[in-house]
Amino acid sequence: MGISMQSETASDSFKSSQRQLPKVIGHRGAKAVAPENTIASIRAAKALGCCWVEVDVMLSKDKVPVIHHDNTLSRCTNGQGNLWEYTLEELQQLDAGSHYDEASGFPATRYPGEQIPQLTTLLQCCRDLDLGLNLEVKHVTQHAPEVPSPREQEMEEELANVVCDTVEDFGVQPSQLVFSSFSRPAIAVLRRRLPHFSCAFLVEDIPDDWEEFMAAHGCASLNFGWPHPANTPAKIEECASKVPCYVYTINDGEVARQLLSLGVSGVFSDCPHLVQQALARSGLDTSITPRGSDETVAARGKNVNAQRVTIREAPWTWDSLGVELPDAQILSDLRRVVFIEEQNVSEEDEWEGGEEECWHWLAVVDGQSVGTVRVKPDGTIGRMAVLKEFRSRGVGAALLQRAVCKVESLGLDAAQLSAQTHAISFYERFGFLVQGAEFEDAGIPHVRMSLNFRDRGG
Ligand code: G3P
Ligand code: MG
To answer: How far is CA 81 from CA 41, 72, 76, in A?
Structure first.
């Protein structure tokens, strides 16, 4: 009984942050797109539409918390040996970007100058980008044992204490950050020091004592690995019926869909945009709702639950499918309402031709098409239109994410668009920068903006 009572407490303590956690969380930033655990990776995750990211934190020789996954430096930097044998200054001399370029086959100029970030730099970046953070407090062994040696325990407790100090000093809000750890001693410190922050119990295979440990420490979720022979569908279903569960590392949309259907709350992914797209195609939540205060989320919910928005590709075809309207009809109806009727754009300016060569998408809410965007073969994003009553609810953001992903998949260096000047700050949130002076198009002031994928990490 004690366990079930305390499990309720754990779940309750999780609710405040769970409300804002999406189904797809960027793993080490967006590890498949940029060098893991770097500022470039965090920016990439944001540009790909993430509202939460996960990173790993460790301690340098001079006791500064830094963002890095492995205990050793060789996989992700040009350094060697254990990270904790180097001071912050020494660590920051290392190149944390080129390994990615080499592994990905891109020219080794794509992420020059990436460093191992300090935790404070990372916290500032997440604050600037309005990203929620799952901060994994690392263990110092390869596989965290249930009972570490006294020296290991001391190191993990020390790290947890320094992390708590930093998070407190930085004024991080509990709605902006959740902790996780494989280290049981670290979890004990995190829960004791900062009980108002949620903390996940992180495991590879789900141990027999998971409920007992979570209850004893008031852990908010169970985060486990997949695939793992011990984490069977039946076991996953059982755990997910009792506590929120998050699974790592899921880079296949169909696997994510199956895990969600077993009841897990979300997944960590190296390519969060691809998993989100696959979930959207399967009709599941696309997790596009930008993170905000509870009030903001509630206000969004007044007319439409933004999490129910799905984005589907809509080829410019006039062939009708059964009783459905042809996609080109739906696309052009939306553009007519927004551009021609609302913004007084002329028919001639609106229908400039070439639609068949472009990619088009529709945003659908409860079966109704409410927005559209297109991408030209040269990487120009345009004709972003959202019906008035569906604005400010994440629909435009979801459309833009899809369009940016398309441009990047074309292998182009940058995405371009002409923004109506009132929307500049919206596009800036996704990393677009104004290029050149204002100009008029169809009688409306515009500026050119571009998102340079090469610069994006900078
Ligand atoms: O928190 C999920 C995941 O990051 C845990 O494993 O080894 O990638 O840090 P790892
Ligand atoms: Mg991690």
So the answer is: 23, 5, 12
